[in-house]
Design brief:
Blueprint: H1 7-16, E1 22-23, E2 27-28, H2 29-33, E3 50-55, H3 59-71, E4 76-81, H4 86-90, H5 101-114, E5 119-127, H6 132-146, E6 150-158, H7 165-170, H8 176-185, E7 190-194, H9 200-208, E8 213-215, H10 218-222, H11 224-234, H12 245-251, H13 253-261, H14 267-270, H15 283-293, H16 301-317
Length: about 325
C-alpha cells in the first residue's frame, strides 16, 4: 500500500491492536542502496512487529537492502512480487517477477544469506496469460527451495497490460480454492491469504479453513476500529482492556506533538486517522474537522481535541 502505510499509519494501527504483523509501504532496494534514502527505514520500535517490504530484482542489491532493514530493527523482510503498478514494472520488479521465478529464487537466497530475520514473499496467483494452476506451484517451489518459509498470496491474477493498479485489485476474479490447494501441496509453507477480505468474520472463516494467516489492507485502513480494534480479541484470543476509539485518538497525541516539534505537519499523521469513527455518531464531524483544518500551516494538537469534542457532542445527542 504505497503512500499509505507509512510510519505514522503504522504507529496509529499499533495503538489499535498489539498482535498483527504490520507492513511498511514498499521501499525499493535501489532507493536504499544507491539513493541512500535511509529515512525510509524510520520507525518506532514500539510498533513492532513490523515487516519491511522491499521491491527490487537484483539479488546483491536486495541482500544489501535487507541488511539495512535488519540493522534498522525490522522483524521481517518481505519481497514484493505482487504489485502491478506501472512504476514498479518499469523497474522490473513487483508482480512482473512472477514471470521469472528462477530470479526470485536467487533474490530470496541472497537475502536469506544476509539477514537473521525471516525473509518472506508476497505474490499473486499469476500474471497476464499465465495459467495459475501451473505458474503458482512453480513459483512457490522455487522460493521454497531458496529457503522461504512464509508467503502471502493475493488470490487474483495481475494483468500488467490493460488494467490499472486499482482495477487489478477488483476485476480479476478471486480464486481462494487454488490458494487453499497450495497449502495442501506445500504443507511446510506458512501461507497467508490476501485479497477481497474486508471483515473479521471473513478472516476468521478463512483461518478455520486452514490458512495460516490472513492479510487485510484497505478495509483495515478505512475502518480501523472495526478491523484492528477488534482483532486482538476475535483473532488472537487476547482480552484487551476496555477501550474506545476516543482512547486511541488520545494515545496518538504524544506522537503528534513529537512530529510537530520536529517540523512535521499535522495532516501527515491525521490523514491516516480519518476512518477511526467509521459508522459511529460523530464520524462525519471528525472527518470534516481534520480534513479541512489539518492542512493549515498552524494546525496543531488542539484541532484533534476539537474534533474529539465534536464526536462526543454528536454521540451524546444521538
Amino acid at each position: 500500500m504505497m503512500d499509505w502505510t507509512d510510519r505514522h499509519c503504522r504507529h496509529f494501527h499499533r495503538r489499535l491492536s498489539s498482535q498483527p504483523l504490520l507492513y511498511t509501504e514498499m521501499v525499493t532496494a535501489p532507493a536504499l542502496v544507491r539513493g541512500g534514502a535511509l529515512h525510509l527505514l524510520d520507525h518506532d520500535p514500539e510498533d513492532a512487529p513490523v515487516a519491511l517490504q522491499l521491491g527490487g530484482a537484483d539479488p546483491d542489491e536486495l541482500a544489501r537492502a535487507a541488511g539495512l532493514g535488519m540493522g534498522a530493527g525490522f522483524d521481517e523482510v518481505n519481497l514484493n512480487c505482487g504489485c502491478p503498478s506501472d512504476r514498479v514494472q518499469s523497474g522490473t520488479f513487483g508482480a512482473v517477477l512472477m514471470k521469472n521465478p528462477a530470479l526470485v529464487k536467487k533474490c530470496c537466497a541472497a537475502m536469506i544469506a544476509e539477514v537473521d530475520v525471516p525473509v518472506t514473499v508476497k505474490c499473486r496467483i499469476g500474471v497476464d496469460d499465465q495459467d495459475p494452476e501451473e505458474a503458482l506451484p512453480e513459483f512457490l517451489a522455487q522460493i521454497a527451495a531458496a529457503g522461504v518459509e512464509r508467503v502471502t498470496i493475493h488470490a487474483r491474477k495481475a494483468w500488467l497490460m490493460g488494467l490499472s493498479p486499482k482495477e487489478n485489485r477488483d476485476i480479476p476474479p478471486l480464486d481462494y480454492d487454488l490458494v487453499q490447494r497450495m497449502k495442501m501441496l506445500f504443507p511446510n509453507l506458512h501461507i497467508t491469504l490476501n485479497g477481497g477480505i474486508d471483515t473479521l468474520d471473513q478472516a476468521v472463516e478463512m483461518l478455520e479453513k486452514g490458512f495460516d494467516g490472513v492479510m487485510i489492507g484497505r478495509a483495515a485502513y478505512h475502518r480501523p476500529w472495526d478491523i484492528l480494534g477488534q482483532a486482538d480479541q476475535r483473532v488472537f484470543g487476547t482480552q484487551p482492556a476496555a477501550r474506545r476509539p476516543e482512547d486511541v485518538a488520545r494515545e496518538m497525541l504524544p506522537h503528534i506533538r513529537a512530529h510537530l516539534a520536529s517540523g512535521g505537519r499535522l495532516h501527515q499523521v491525521t490523514r491516516h486517522m480519518l476512518g477511526l469513527f467509521h459508522g459511529r455518531p460523530g464520524a462525519r464531524q471528525w472527518r470534516r474537522i481534520l480534513s479541512e483544518g489539518a492542512v493549515r500551516p498552524d494546525a496543531g494538537v488542539s484541532l484533534v481535541e476539537q474534533a474529539l469534542e465534536a464526536v462526543q457532542e454528536r454521540a451524546l445527542s444521538a
